[in-house]
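User: Please write out a complete single-protein record containing the residue sequence and its fold in token form, without commentary.

AI:
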Amino acid sequence: MDVSLLGGLPGGPAPQRGVGVIAPFDFALDRELWRWVPDEVSLHLTRTPYVPVEVSLGLARLISEHETLGDAVRTLVAVAPEVVAYACTSGSFVAGIVGERAMCEAMSRAGAVPAITTSGALLEALAELDVRRVALVTPYTVSVTRALEGYVAQAGVTVTGCAYMSLTRHIWTVTYREVVDMARRAAVRGRLGAAEALFLSCTNLPTYDVIPQLEAELRIPVISANQVTMWAALRRLGTRAVGPYQALIDASARSGPVLPDRTSGGVLPDQASGPVLPEETQQEGWT
């Protein structure tokens, strides 16, 4: 065998650039993260310590404490990542925009490297796509979902609709079909107008393969928690994520009209705060 065919040198593969990833203890989608990563980049994953608490605002606060994040970053220092990403949506929006920025600062101090979070990457992606109205899909309970709505609102983005599942565990078992069904419900045009993009929240929700399908159907950019996390981290390295036919990553996918008016399902009555949920979402058990 001609060893010159194996990367040019017999000493092994070309040098890899590193992205450190901090994930919650129950994170189960390592393989999905890798699908956005080009060959010249390696992911170095670590997890926050296990705590016996169901998915909730309380858990989000526990796994995003600065001491916890700092300890996690220090476990990655030995492999010298060029950027560190906290891959958790609820853990990074639970304290609002100010809290998210403080998390990034705490992680940067602990590892002397740039740091991002999933929720910070979400706002960065919405700005990149020039989105001011977004629909949300979450697997969370209503309280965690409302916290996400509040976080997005702090950035001046209107939430036009939302579908959520009230799950408190095993979110990684949600199927692609369920994700697509929720997306269709969330994107229905309501009293706040049509969404300019749709966000699939939670890094434990599988999304890679449904993004192009949903973008083709809904005619708006569809972004997900894992996607924006990898996109933003790789952007810090000056390189691009791998996501064919995904509008955030593939400029050729950024075309087509916004979602047509589909109001047949109706909406809930006006509420004092938070966006309106499509009525059909409630009727069909998406609580």
